[in-house]
Amino acid sequence: MTAREALGAAVDALTAAGVETPRLDAELLIADALGVERAALVVDPSLPVPPAASRLLSERIRRRVRREPVAYILGRKGFRRLMVQVDSRVLIPRPETELLVEVALSLPRGARVHDVGTGSGAVALALMDERPDLVVSASDASADAVAVARLNGVDAFVHSGLPGEALDLVLANLPYVREDEWPGLQPEIRLYEPRDALVSGADGLDAIRSLVAGAPRGLRLALEHAPDQAARVRALLSEAGTLDDLSGRPRVTVGSAP
Asked: pLDDT exceeding 90 applies to what percent of the chain?
């Protein structure tokens, strides 16, 4: 079997399963099974697929047909300049969360930043990579998530409030999905990603309200949220403003704890 034949069969199977990006996903899985870059499949579609790679690919395609996310199948996900290890204990890092990193990049040298709800540690890792002068710490309410963050090189701890030392900025990608939204989410999310890292009460803001309520007065917070939650999140903070993500949707609100 050649890479071209494997790609055709994989795209057909993923399309039939309702996968939204069948060709992209197939290319990622095939390239990884062959140990090559995606571009190699275009440059030389006649690449042979050895038996061992074929068996690995077949199993991975079956998993993707069951709607398991590609990131969990491969065990990694790109985030900014980094490749982060992920599994079903943590959320898969999303492009919109990069906006939290952008907020922190404007801080002065030596500023202290804490990442609440760090998950895989992607945000903290990106800051450590791009601004090594910052003092970065991280925490998560999930011991499983803390284990993954540590695996990625983040010295995270189980969340029991904010650190005792003075902070210049808190970044938070906390759960913000409404309870009634959960049943309608994509199978990739609903069947595989940790529910507790996504859902937060009837209006999705329980975790955000709790963080703001427990923050010292005047502490700057950058909070990721759903686009339709922007006004309500601004109302929780003082001197607040909302930033749009790359799709032009209000995604991160920055303000001070009242």
From this structure: 97
